[in-house]
Amino acid sequence: MPTTFSLAEREREYSPSSCIGGNYQPCLQEYADRSAATPAACTVHRDLAYGEKLSERLDLFLPTSTAAASQPVALLVFIHGGYWQELSKASSLFAAAGCIEAGVAFAAIDYTLAPAAGIAEMVQECRRALRWLHGNAASFGIDGQRIVVAGSSAGAHLAAMTCLRDRDDDLPAGLPAGAVLVSGIYDLAPLIGTSIAAPLALTAATAGTVSPCRMKLDDFPPAIICWGEVETSEFKRQSRDFAALLAATDIAGLSCFEEPARNHFDVILDLSRSDTMLGAATLAMLHHTAARSSNQDLS
After folding, report:
1. Rounded distance, CA 274 to CA 272, Å?
2. What is the DSSP string of 96-109?
3. 29-38, pLDDT tens digit by residue?
4. CA–CA separation, 125 vs 260, rounded Å?
5. CB–CB of 13/76 below 8 Å?
6. Which CATH superfamily is domain 22-298 in?
């Protein structure tokens, strides 16, 4: 982060709505409207419990076509944004239709929001959700080695944190098989002192423990890092810097790009749309995990 940024400048740079006139409610309404429609040719499981808390729930969409059901399918798991303080899985189902159409399962998870939970606790919950999905994959016709995690904004941060290895709550090998990180924050230090940090109880010490850019990134899975053209310079920098860190570790399958004419809020609507850069890349990643899993089965 440029050292010349004042607190007021950081407030603006980390306010993504500053690029669209301040009103992002129409985008949230679009999330809700698109999420309300249940895709055709799918089986839906609502409010599956992956933990003991009422907030630890997920919705799961499974393709029911003959072709998709003939073998275990890949799964895209979405973690919503909202600066760790708002939104829910109920308005995060907009990518389900595109996944089902592509013969891929889709899940959206809830997690405990601030101030009821700190970011470290949210990270644990998201990792717990992936562990639960992996452990129950066979019973839903899902291939446990083909689970890709995706997230937007704060959700991208949480998704990145699920990809870290060598932790006390380490996930099974190959979980997740890939990550789609959209308009994320990977260094939380610039938020300290801003209005965003107060409900999070964010300090220099806690920011360091939950910033993926400061973590060991070895064995990070293949990753797509994307952001919208109409975003603040800091959000763009965060994505570019994190992509550069991943590139330095020589991870396979790293893709980094800016989605034209999209902003911080509507870029994620492209997540499973095959006619967009983000959607095409995401579906290609899911299909690539399928090819890789098939090759492993043959070995």
Report:
1. 6
2. HHHHHHTT-EEEEE
3. 999 999 998 8
4. 33
5. no
6. Alpha/Beta hydrolase fold, catalytic domain (3.40.50.1820)
